[in-house]
C-alpha cells in the first residue's frame, strides 16, 4: 500500500503538506508579489469579524451546522440577518465530534456501533488537536468559554516502530532522535575537519559550525558521537542516575547512523517541527465537540436538525432549498434571500443545484480523502503505569500507523481510551470494508506489537471510517496543484445568491481553522454584496 | 560574566549536565562494569519502598522537612519507627516552595518582600517542573493525590534573543530551529553529492542519507534549503494560509546558515532534547508546593517547626540534637536512636557535629550554587494575547537569561505571573546585592527588550536569591568531578548513627527526584542496619 512504502512523516502532516504543495506550486509569482507588497500579518485572522452596514432584514439559509455553518449563523445573526440553518444529522458539529459511553453510531451500510467507554472518557473521530497558530479556533474557544488544555504531539518517550527495523522491536523516539542528530553531526564535523567544506564554508564559520555541532549533536571532545554521559543524556540511560549509594548511572549504547538510516525510523522525527504540529498544541477539555456544543448553544433555535437537503435552487429573488425531514413526510421548501452552503463537496456534488458552470465544475472536481480512526478502551492506563508514556504519539509502519495516548487525566487510576489507529488512503477503504468488530480486532493485533498489554487489558472499541460517515462521505477535500489552479477561485466565488464555505474552501484542508476562516471570508464577501446592493 | 560568554544551552540544563559530567568522568571503568553485569532497569525507582523487618521501637530524628526529610518521615513511620522531624522554617517543603499573594518573604540581611499577586496566581522560586523520567516524584504525586498538568518546556513560537544577534531583534524559536536544521542538512547533502563522504558512508547508505536529509531538513528537490512552502511550514509563514479568497499564504525568507551560526542562537535549540527537559514534563496544578503540602499533611504532628538545630552529637546509644526555638527560650536536647539529616551542606557545614573525618570532610567540600529567580505579575497575559506564546521559555543572553510563561490557565482574561529571570553564578550574587525593588526594576528593563509590553503592563514582582534564603543558603550542591570521586561515597555512607540525605547526596543535583531517591536509599540502608543489629 502507498502509505506503507512511504516513510516521510506521519500521515496527517504529510497529507496537509502535500495538499498545500499542490495548492501553491502553480502560483509562486503571485506570492512573491504579495510578499513584495509587505503583507505583514502572520495570520489571516485578526480578531472578531466586523460586518458593518445594515442588511435591512435580509434572510440567509445556511446548509450544514458544522463549524463553518455555525460560525456563519452566529456572525450573520449578530450583523442583523434573519438566519436559519439546516442540518442533516441530529446533532451539531459535523466532523467536530466526540464519542462517549452510550453513544450509538450508524455508518453508511447500516452497521451500528454502541460505545461502551467509561464515564468521562471519549474519543474524537475527527479533529483532535489545535495548533497555536490556528488563531480563529483559539479565539472562538476563548469567546465561547471552551476550556483548553495542552495536547502532547511529540513524546520523546513514545515509540517508533518499523516491521523491518531492529528486528521489529519498537524503539524510543528519544533514542532515534539523538542517534540521528548525533550521527549527522559527527559526519558533518568530520567532513569539516578534513577540509571538505572549505569551498562552502569560510574558516571562521567552520569554527562556529563545529562548536554548534558539538553542542547540538552531543558530540564528545574528539567530535565523535559515542556512548557517554552526553549521549545518554539525550537518548536515555541504561540505568538512570539516582540517589545515595545506588546512584551511579550507566550509559546506553547508541545505534550507528547506518542502522538508523536503514531503519527508516528517522521519518518519524519531522512531525513536531511542522508548523501545525509544533508546541504548544491544544485540545478542548472533555472532547473536541466541546467546541461544537458551545457553538450549538449560541445558535440554539436557529438550527433545524434531521433535515436532508435534496435540492438547491436560486432565482433573481432568492434561494429555495428542498428539505426532507428524517422522520418522513413530504419534502418542504425553505426560502431565503441568500444561501451559505457548507456541505462537504462529497455530498454537495450529489445534490441538484443551479449554479454556473465554473462553480459546478469546481464542486465536482475535488475528491475526498478516505480515513479511518479506531478508539480503544483499556482497563488501565498501562502506557503510563508500565512504560511512562504520558500523552503523545507512537508511530509504526503497520496499517494502524500510530497510537496516540490521552493528553489528559495523567496518572488517573481508572480505564483509559487511546487512539488505536489513524490511517488514510487505500488501507482505510480496505479496513472499513470489514465489520466493525473485526476492525477493532485487527487494530488490537497490530497494536499489540507495540504494547503486548493490549491483549489482557482490552475493554471495548469503536471505529469510524470517514468515507462511510453519513453527511460527510470523506475526511476532507483532497486538492491537487492542478485542481487548485483550475477550480479553487471558482469554488469560493459567490455564484448569484449562493456562497460556499468549509475546510474544502480553504488553504488549510482537514483543519477546523480552514472551515472557520473560509466561513468568515465567505460571509464577509456576501455581506458586502448585500449592503452594497 | 561567565554565563554571558557561554552559549551552550539554558543554564539549568547545563548546570545539571556539568554536575553529572564531573560526577562521572572519573569512574568510567566502574560504569562499564555495571553495564556488563546487565543492569537492565531504566530507573533506580521501582515503586513504593518496602522496609521489611521490625525496628522494635527504634526512634529516629529527621533534620529538615523538605522533600527528603518528609519522605524519610513518612516511610520510616510506616515501617514502625518513632519519628520526629525538626524544621527551621515555619513551613514544610524546603526548596519546594511557591509564593502567592499576601505571602511575606524575609531574606538573609533582613529585607522583607510582600507578594501582591492576584488570587490563584503563584511563582515557584525553587523547582518548577518534573521530567517524565523522575519516577519517584511522579509516584509520590500519584500516591498523595497531587494533580499534575503538562509543563511546556519548548515552545516553537517563543523567542530566542542575543544582544549581538540580528541587531538585537528577538527571533522565533521555530525559525532558528528550521534554519539551523535546514542549513546543516543542505551542507551535508551537498558534500554527499560531491562524493566527499564516499570514504565515510557506503553508496547505498548515501542514498538513504540524502532522502532523510531532504525530509528532515525541509530541502527542496534540488537539495537546497530555500524560501518555499516546505521551509515556511517549519519556520513559519510571512502570511499564514487562510480560507476562501483571502487564503493564499506567502512564504518567509530563511536566514542563511552563516548568519544563524554567528548569531549563536543555535545554542538554545538543545534543551528540549536533554533527558530532563524532553516531553512530556509536568507541574503540579496550583504550584510546586502542592507536593510539599501533600507530604506535610501526611507527616502532620511529627514536625516541629521554627526549630533551629545548633548541634548534632552522637554516642554509642543514640543521637542528641540541640534545638533552639525561633520564639526564644533555652536550647533543648532532642534524643533519638538514629538521625537522618537532610540539611543542605551549606547549613550543615556550620553546625557542630561529631562525625568521622571522611564525612566531615565531605560536608565541608561541596560549595553551593548561587541562583536567582524573579517572578513578575502583569495586568494581562499579553504574551498570549499579542504574541500567541502559550507556555514555554524564551531565551536571551541578557542577565535575566530566560522568560518563562505560565503553563496553565491558557487564554484566561485576568492577570498573569511569569518567570522574569533565572540566572546563576556571579550574576546571581551581583543581582541579589541590590535591594529587592531594584532587582525587579532591572528584570523589567531587560525583559522589555523581548516584550515591550512589560512597561505598561507591569503589576508587581518578587525576587528570590537562593544563596540568601535562610535555611538553604544556596540553590544546590555544586559537585565537581574531583569532589565526587573523593567525597561522594563518604557523604552518603552511614556514620555511626547518622545518615545524610538530600539532592546533594544524589547524582541528580538540584532536582526533587535526587532528594527523594537519596532519602529512599539512605533510609533503606539505615533500616537494614537497624533490623540486623
TrEMBL record, chains A, B:
Pathway entry: Plant hormone metabolism; auxin biosynthesis
Entry keyword set: Auxin biosynthesis
Transmembrane spans: none
EC number: 1.13.12.3
InterPro entries reported for this sequence: Amino_oxidase, FAD/NAD-bd_sf, Flavin_monoamine_oxidase, TAT_signal
One Pfam family cited in the UniProt record for this chain: Amino_oxidase
Family: Belongs to the tryptophan 2-monooxygenase family.
Protein name as catalogued: Tryptophan 2-monooxygenase
Naturally occurring in which organism (per UniProt): Muricoccus vinaceus
Lineage: Bacteria, Pseudomonadati, Pseudomonadota, Alphaproteobacteria, Acetobacterales
Amino acid at each position: 500500500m502507498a502509505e506503507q512504502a512511504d516513510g516521510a512523516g506521519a500521515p496527517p502532516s504529510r497529507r496537509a503538506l502535500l495538499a498545500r504543495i499542490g495548492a501553491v506550486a502553480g502560483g509562486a509569482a503571485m506570492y512573491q508579489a504579495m510578499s513584495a507588497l509587505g503583507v505583514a500579518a502572520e495570520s489571516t485572522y485578526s480578531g472578531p469579524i466586523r460586518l458593518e452596514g445594515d442588511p435591512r432584514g435580509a434572510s440567509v439559509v445556511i446548509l450544514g451546522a458544522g463549524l463553518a455553518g455555525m460560525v456563519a449563523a452566529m456572525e450573520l445573526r449578530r450583523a442583523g440577518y434573519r438566519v436559519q440553518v439546516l442540518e442533516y444529522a441530529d446533532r451539531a458539529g459535523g466532523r467536530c465530534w466526540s464519542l462517549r459511553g452510550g453513544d450509538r453510531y450508524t455508518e453508511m451500510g447500516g452497521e451500528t456501533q454502541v460505545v461502551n467507554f467509561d464515564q468521562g472518557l471519549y474519543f474524537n473521530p475527527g479533529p483532535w488537536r489545535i495548533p497555536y497558530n490556528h488563531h480563529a479556533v483559539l479565539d472562538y474557544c476563548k469567546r465561547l468559554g471552551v476550556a483548553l488544555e495542552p495536547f502532547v504531539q511529540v513524546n520523546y518517550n513514545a515509540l517508533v516502530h518499523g516491521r523491518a527495523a531492529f528486528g521489529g522491536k519498537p524503539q524510543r523516539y528519544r533514542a532515534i532522535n539523538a542517534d540521528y542528530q548525533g550521527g549527522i553531526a559527527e559526519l558533518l564535523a568530520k567532513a569539516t575537519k578534513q577540509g571538505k567544506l572549505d569551498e562552502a564554508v569560510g574558516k571562521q564559520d567552520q569554527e562556529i559550525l563545529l562548536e554548534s555541532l558539538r553542542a547540538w549533536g552531543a558530540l564528545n571532545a574528539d567530535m565523535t558521537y559515542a556512548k557517554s554521559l552526553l549521549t545518554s543524556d539525550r537518548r536515555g540511560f541504561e540505568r538512570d542516575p539516582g540517589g545515595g549509594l545506588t546512584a551511579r548511572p550507566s550509559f546506553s549504547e547508541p545505534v550507528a547512523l547506518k542502522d538508523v538510516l536503514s531503519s527508516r525510523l528517522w521519518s518519524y522525527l519531522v512531525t513536531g517541527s511542522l508548523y501545525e504540529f509544533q508546541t504548544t498544541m491544544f485540545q478542548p477539555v472533555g472532547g473536541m465537540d466541546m467546541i461544537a456544543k458551545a457553538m450549538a448553544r449560541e445558535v440554539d433555535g436557529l438550527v433545524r436538525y434531521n433535515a436532508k437537503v435534496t435540492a438547491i435552487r436560486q432565482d433573481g429573488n432568492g434561494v429555495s432549498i428542498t428539505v426532507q425531514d428524517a422522520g418522513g413526510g413530504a419534502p418542504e421548501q425553505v426560502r431565503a434571500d441568500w444561501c451559505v452552503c457548507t456541505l462537504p463537496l462529497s455530498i454537495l456534488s450529489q445534490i441538484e443545484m443551479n449554479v454556473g458552470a465554473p462553480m459546478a465544475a469546481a464542486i465536482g472536481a475535488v475528491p475526498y480523502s478516505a480515513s479511518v480512526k479506531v478508539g480503544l478502551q483499556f482497563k488501565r492506563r498501562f502506557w503510563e503505569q508500565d512504560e511512562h508514556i504520558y500523552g503523545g504519539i507512537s508511530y509504526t509502519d503497520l496499517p494502524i500507523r500510530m497510537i496516540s495516548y490521552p493528553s489528559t487525566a495523567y496518572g488517573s487510576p481508572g480505564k483509559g481510551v487511546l487512539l488505536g489507529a489513524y490511517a488514510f488512503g487505500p488501507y482505510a477503504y480496505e479496513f472499513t470494508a470489514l465489520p466493525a468488530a473485526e476492525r477493532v480486532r485487527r487494530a488490537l493485533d497490530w497494536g499489540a506489537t507495540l504494547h503486548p498489554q493490549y491483549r489482557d487489558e482490552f475493554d471495548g472499541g469503536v471505529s469510524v471510517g470517514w468515507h462511510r460517515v453519513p453527511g460527510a462521505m470523506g475526511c476532507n477535500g483532497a486538492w491537487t496543484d492542478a485542481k487548485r489552479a483550475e477550480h479553487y477561485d471558482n469554488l469560493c466565488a459567490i455564484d448569484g445568491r449562493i456562497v460556499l464555505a468549509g475546510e474544502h474552501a480553504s488553504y488549510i484542508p482537514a483543519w477546523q481553522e480552514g472551515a472557520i476562516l473560509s466561513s468568515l471570508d465567505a460571509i464577509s464577501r456576501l455581506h458586502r454584496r448585500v449592503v452594497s446592493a
